Structures are given as C-alpha cells and as structure tokens.
Amino acid sequence: MTDVTGDVPSSGMGKPARDWIRDLAKYRTPSTARSLTETALTLGPLLVLWAISFMLLHVHVLPAVLASMISGIFLVRLFIIQHDCGHGAFLANRKAQDWIGRLAGVLTCTPYADWKHTHSIHHAHAGHLDKRGIGDVHTMTLEEYRGAGRFKRLKYRIYRHPLFLFGCAPLILFVLQYRLPYSLKAHKKFWVSTMGTNIGIAALLGVFYLLAGFQGIALIWLPSIAVGSTIGVWLFYVQHQFEETHWDHEAEWDMHEAALHGSSHYVMPAALQWLSGNIGIHHVHHLFSRIPFYRLPEVLRDHPELDDPKIRLTIRESFACARHHIWDQGSRKLLTFKQARLL
C-alpha cells in the first residue's frame, strides 16, 4: 500500500514487502532429486493406504473407511505438489512438471490447466477489493453487506456458515464444480484439461469398481476425497480469512504488501507441517510463488524477521477465523456478523 507521498511503507518485517523479492529469489531453484523424492513420499503412502483399505473391506467396513480417510491427508500433500507444478516451482523440466501436475490432478479431482489459470488470478489479485470473485472465498465488505437486501444477506450467511464452507462445499467443489472449466466460455485448452481430467477420474473409478464394486467407490475413494477436500478448503480459508488480513481498493492496493500481510503464517506441529506441504508458510509463498514448498522453511530459518506475530496463527487461534466474515475498511479487520450488526 502506498501513502500520499507515493512511498511504500515498511512491511513491518524489516523493509518494504517488494524489497524481499531479491532476498527470496535465491530459494526459487528446485532440486529434481528432492522433488521426485517428495512425490514418491506422497504418492507411495496414498496408494498403500488405498490398498490397505481394499484389504480391510473384506474384514470390516469401519477400518476400511478409516484407512481411506487417512489417505485423504496424502491427497492434500499431493495437491500441494500439483500446486507447485502450476507455479513452475517443482521441476526445471517444464514438460515433466506439467505431466506430474496433470496426473496429480486426476487423483485430487482438480483439472490442472484450468485450476492453474484461476489460481494465477488469485495470486495476481489477492487482497484487491475491486477484483474479487475468481479463485478466492467470496467476502463482502461492511458497506456491501449493509446495502444488501434480506435475501442476499441470507444467502451470504448460508455461504459463510462453517457447516456449508467445511461440510458441503468441499465435495461440491472438487467432485462436481471442477467437472467443468471455470467458465463455459473458457479457452479450448481449459476444456481439454477439464475433460481429460474427467476421463482420468472415470478410469480411476473403474479400477475401484473392479476391485470392490460400488463399495470401493463409496467407502474408499469418496471418504478420501471428502477428507482431502475438506482439509484443503480449511487451509485455503485460514490462509486469507483471518481477522487482520489485508484488503484494499485499486488506489491503495499493492500486490507485494497484500501478499505479505494478507496471507497468514499457519503454525503447525512438524508432522502436520510436513503433511500439508509447508503451505502454512503462506505469506512467503504469496510473496514469491516460485519457491518450492520444501524450501519454504529455509526462508524462515534464514530470515526470522518474516515470522511476523501479526499474521501468525496457531491451530487453536485459527478456529476463530470461521467466525469472521465481513471486511470493514475502517477498522481494517474482518468482522463477525455480530460485530457488523453492532457497528
């Protein structure tokens, strides 16, 4: 954000946000061996857990479903690999990188090229009040909410309710919505990406059916997708929907400041940080998206000043994010519905 003099204020992390770009550029180079190892360490457990689920299905339904739900956690990590491929951060070989992204997209139910496009829009417009709507969680300002009719307010309250956002929405998004490109008028390559992913998913479901009939789909594939998509939506939500996030209109918006201050640092235990592909270090990722996910901890280790307490969220603190829904430009905070009503 620029002040009236045209100067860029300090990010609160030692210097203006854009000045961090030069420091972060040295972390952008991926290691082919490390990337392939991370892929194996993610895909291997996923396939093993699915195999265990099929074996347990012959013993009892409950342990089979439990094993399939655990496999959903590795779908989250596979999604992070696909995500890095989309940013060009995973392999030096672009063709190999794109094919890993496409194949991962079949398992995560996410069309690679189409999602890559909408996610690039999210990165380009994060925190921009005048360019909301693609690749983000719909957020109304206080003025918009006050000016909305009763029915529009009701729709917004239903949409932002945790039971919808983290109950229904993940499966709707990944199982149904992603079966078509982001727009019916989308470029041909996005239709090819989406339909190609759909064919791959159909083939995968065919394998599940051959191994265990409809039970294989309903009790093994679906629970893993449900868990993976729910965790994914939650992570994406808390990365930008925390109380002191960063939103501005065109005149005040600055991409680098929005990246650094409008993205949280979600602090998790080491095991959960590994399973989530370090995506909790989201402010660094948004500031320089070409850094491979496995190098993000290096950045915080070398630059501890980026561990800003203002954007830090522990798991316990993050649950409060589910109550904040309306952006108030005056206080520069996300408000709860109750706070908005009392203003």
What do you see in this structure?
- By secondary structure, the chain is mainly α.
- 60% of the residues lie in helices and 4% in strands.
- Strands 1-4-5 form a three-stranded mixed β-sheet.
Topology, element by element:
Elements lengths: L19 H5 L7 H26 L3 H26 L7 H15 L3 H14 L14 E2 H6 L2 H11 L1 H15 L11 H53 L14 H7 L3 E3 L2 H6 L6 H6 L8 H7 L9 E3 H4 L7 E3 L4 E3 L1 H6 L1
Parallel strand pairs: 1-4, 2-3
Antiparallel strand pairs: 4-5
Helix pairs in contact: 2-3, 2-9, 3-4, 3-9, 4-9, 8-9
Which features does this protein show?
343 residues; mainly alpha; 3-stranded mixed sheet; 15 helices; 5 strands; 4% strand; globular
Q: How much is the average pLDDT?
A: 94
Amount of beta strand = under 5%
| Rg, Cα atoms, Å | 21 Å
Q: Which H/E pattern describes the elements? A: HHHHHEHHHHHEHHHEHEEH
Task: Supply the helix-strand structural class.
Answer: mainly alpha
Total of DSSP H or I helical runs spanning 4+ residues: 15
* Distance from first to last alpha carbon: 26 Å
What composes the largest sheet? 3 strands, mixed
Summarize the structure.
This protein has 15 helices and five strands.
